[in-house]
Amino acid sequence: MNKRKKIALSLWCAVLAVFPAGAQTLAPDSLYKQEMAAVSSALAKRQAELSGLLKAMPDKADSVNRVYTKFAFEQVKRFTALSVRYAPQVPEALEGLYRARNEVSKDTLRQVLSRLDDELAHTVCAESLRRYVSCRQLGEGDALLEFPCTGLDGQPFDWRVTHGKQVLLLYGGLGCMGDFGRQALKELFDSTSRDDLLVVVYEPCSSLEELQATKAAYPFDYIYVSDFKPVGTPMQVEYGAQATPTCFLTDRQHIIRVVNVGLGAARLRAHISQD
Asked: Is it the case that residue 5 has pLDDT exceeding 80?
C-alpha cells in the first residue's frame, strides 16, 4: 500500500471514532454532522458487504482488500471535502481539516484560514494550521529538529544524549504496528549498539500518565517522550507526521536519511550504519 493510501486509511480510523455510523446530529452543526454520518454509514455498509464476501471466498482476500481500500480512499476524499467546506464555521470540521492537512493543498488551507469566523480563528487548530502552511515540512536530507519534550521521569528530555548517534524517531504507532511490526523493530534495535543507534518514541498523548502507560504496555528499552500536545506539536506541523507510526531515521550527524509511513524495517536496516 502506498504512502498516500496509508495516511488516508489512518485518517478514516479517526473519522469513524468521531462520527460513528448512524450517529445522531445536534444543532447548530447538524448539516455537517448529517453529511459526515452519511459518509460513515456508506463505508460501514460497504465494509459489512465485503466482510461477508471475504468469509464466503477467503481465497479472494487480496482482491477484496483492494476493493475496500479503494472505496475507503474515496470516502476519505469526501470527508476532506466536507471539512474544507464547513471548517470556517464548524469546530469539528476545522479539527477534521487539521487531521487531513497533508491531503489538502496549502493554497486551499490558506483560503479556509482566511474565512474562519472570529472564534475559530483563535483556536489551537487554526494557529497550528497557520504554522503548517507557513513552513516546509521536514523530509529526507533535512536536519533533525530538536524540540522541547518530556521523558518518562517527568523531566525535560535532553537531546544531547542522541548526539553522535543515529536516531530513529517514531511518531507513535507502537500499538498500530501490531505484534509483527513490534518484533521487527525490536530485532532492529537488538542488532545494534546503543552507542550507534537510539530509538526515540514520540507518543502523541495529553499527559505524563498516558506516556508512562504506553511504556508499561510496550516495555522496550526505547526512549519515550512527549510534549503532551494532541494538536500543534512539531511532530505534526514541522515534521508533517500524520499517520502512526511515521518513522524518521537520521545518520550520526542527524541528517534525516529515511522517512517511512509505517515501519518499513527493511529500508531502515539498509540505512543503519554498522561501523
From this structure: no
